[in-house]
Design goal:
This protein is an all-beta fold. Helices cover about 0% and strands about 55% of the residues. Strands 1-4-5-6-7-8-9-12-13-16-17-18-19-22 form a 14-stranded antiparallel beta barrel. The protein has a four-stranded antiparallel β-sheet with strand order 3-2-21-20, with no helix packed on it.
């Protein structure tokens, strides 16, 4: 197939000056912080340094191997074999103001890693991609704030995805794949503890990338939310429904040096009615959730500063999925405003990327059994190193 371009790591698409594969590595990032809890339920969308630098506005551009996570159809414009390794470091400091006292959240934030690989033959129309990351994570401990009714809620959900990519033409590619979830859960209340792992849950997703003109691209990805069934072998269980997700984006190259992108992502959190721990039909731990579907809007700009070097800027508005009425701190998410800055460059045959983000969460006051004013601070940093073989 006569493709429009080869997009690989730091290489641009046609209509924009290409970045060479050699040069001195520069990684630029900085960020500041403000206040409150994770938005969009308990999703973790930061799955590569290049994406984090753009606040994850990448579904339409999808121009490095981390497209395996955000839009595998973008691999169709990336010839050869590629691999990427990376890690994200997160910091969180949250609390609730109960009026007479401020009680800390004893939970924290993890340091997930990511691994991506792809193969797209130069003269072929069919390629493959593999992605391993941690798209969902939850870690709350409100035992000090509500000692009689709250405790620990921890989830760690890793996902291994395998995709087949088909280049329909020089301007259109589609992909489809399967997801394998490797999950663990811990739910603790006074006098009751539940801990279990699951490795038997599968799901699927589809994506597309279309280039209607040399300087424009459109991307979309849909993922079916799976139901994870935890069981600890003691007739105790927890069924967790992950949200259906749909992301749509448009990217445009300007003046051969700048790319801008605008994305919108919808998550069907209304599927998740509760996180009850059961023993048969008996409720051992009651965690009723009042969740609604959420929308995230992301904007990113890539400045191809000089040969082999990119600087990235991003902003995202992330709507909370928990209603104020019936608010449950088991999830305790809030609307957030994320700002990010990152950079990437080539050195010794590798591409290095670094990004930092700061999310501002306005304080949230709720009523009911868990009444209070919730505050949080969250910082993220991601480092990725990739190579074409």
């Amino acid at each position: 197939m006569n493709r429009l371009a080869i997009e690989w790591l730091g290489t641009k698409e046609p209509g924009v000056k290409g970045l060479g594969m050699k040069g001195f590595s520069v990684a630029v990032a900085c960020c500041v912080s403000m206040t409150t809890a994770q938005a969009g339920g308990f999703s973790n969308p930061d799955m590569s340094a290049s994406a984090l630098g753009l606040s994850n506005a990448v579904v339409a551009s999808a121009d490095d191997v981390s497209a395996a996570a955000y839009n595998p159809a973008g691999i169709a414009w990336q010839d050869g074999i590629q691999g990427m390794l990376g890690i994200e470091a997160q910091y969180r400091n949250s609390s609730v103001n109960l009026g007479s006292v401020v009680a800390p959240n004893g939970g924290g934030a993890g340091n997930p890693g990511h691994l991506y690989a792809s193969w797209m033959p130069h003269d072929g129309n069919i390629g493959f991609a593999l992605a391993y990351n941690s798209p969902y994570e939850l870690d709350n401990d409100w035992a000090l704030a509500f000692p009689a009714s709250a405790g620990i809620s921890q989830l760690k959900i890793d996902r291994l995805s395998l995709d087949a990519i088909y280049a329909v033409s020089s301007s259109l590619a589609v992909s489809g794949g399967i997801d394998w979830y490797l999950s663990s859960a811990e739910m603790t209340l006074p006098g009751q503890s539940f801990s279990a792992k699951d490795k038997k849950t599968f799901g699927g997703h589809i994506s597309m990338k279309w280039k209607p003109a040399p300087t424009w691209s459109v991307g979309a990805m849909a993922r079916l939310g799976s139901e994870i069934k935890f069981s600890n072998g003691l007739s105790q269980s927890l069924n967790l429904k992950l949200p259906d997700e749909f992301t749509l984006g448009v990217a445009h190259d300007i003046a051969d040096t700048v790319r801008i992108e605008l994305d919108a992502a919808w998550s069907r959190w209304s599927k998740l009615k509760d996180m009850n721990v059961m023993s048969g039909t008996t409720v051992l731990q009651s965690h009723i959730l009042n969740m609604h579907d959420s929308l995230t809007v992301m904007a990113g700009a890539t400045w191809f500063w000089r040969e082999n070097t990119q600087i990235r800027f991003g902003y995202a508005y992330d709507q909370e999925a928990s209603d104020s009425t019936g608010f449950n701190p088991v999830v305790a998410d809030q609307t957030g405003h994320k700002a990010s800055l990152g950079g990437g460059a080539d050195m010794f045959g590798f591409h290095s990327g670094l990004a930092l983000s700061y999310t501002f969460y306005p304080k949230r006051t709720v009523t009911g059994p868990y009444a209070g004013t919730y505050r949080d601070q969250r910082y993220s940093a991601a480092l990725s190193v990739s190579k074409r073989f």
